[in-house]
Amino acid sequence: MSAAPIFGLLLSGGASQRMQRDKAQLSYAGEPQLLRAWRVLSAVTERAFVSVRETQRHDPLRAQLPQLVDTYDAVGPAAGILSAQDAYPEAAWLVIACDLPRLDEATLRTLIAARDPAKDATVFTSRFDDLPEPLCALWEPSSHARLKARYDAGSYCPRKTLIQSDIVLLPAPGDALDNINTPEEFAQMQRQLESQP
To answer: From edge to edge, which strands make up the β-sheet containing 6-11?
Structure first.
């Protein structure tokens, strides 16, 4: 059996409550974070989509990219992942959050190179708690049944789905998966990235 094709899903539907503004619009070196992440993701996948809520469809930044609109209630990342799996059940989904400004193509290629299509997912370990990191992960078609069952049972945490699944677990890739959640973290990351050559 051949491996499923790898499609990309860029999660951008979060409410950004702690940031107090849309994280996708945050800019580093003049480039919105959403487009920065899109460039990295689309470089390593056969097709890629931005995951959006219905209310975000016509946002000018998101509207310029191929979209998958959530077909599940707004329950966080699980809604986007399940919606993508329903739309293209034959695909494996390389899922990334849009708020990982240090994520690069090399990190994603490392994840893909370690892929075992017979497993449910290939994921990195979080450097903060050693648990699977669901928002930079390659979800195989076989992961859908467990994620959907947990959703139907009222449990919306994709990390817990991974913990209960048969996965390839890789060491944390340094600080590549550090996300930003507050205006202070954004200002600090902006200074760091813009001071790099």
So the answer is: 67-69, 47-52, 6-11, 92-97, 132-139, 121-125, 167-170
Domain for residue 1, yes or no?
Answer: no
**Domain of residue 49, residue span:** 6-194
Tell me the H-state helices in 33-139: 33-42, 60-63, 77-87, 105-113
Number of structural domains the chain divides into: 1
**Residue 143 per-residue DSSP state:** G
Do residues 48 and 172 lie in contact, with contact meaning Cβ atoms separated by under 8 Å? no
Residue 172's pLDDT band, with cuts at 50, 70 and 90, is very high
- pTM of the full structure: 0.94
The CATH number covering residue 78 comes to 3.90.550.10
**If we measure between CA atoms, which residue out of 161, 105, 93 comes closest to residue 133?**
161
Mean pLDDT of 178-193: 85
> In angstroms, rounded to a whole number, what is the distance separating the alpha carbons of residues 128 and 108?
19
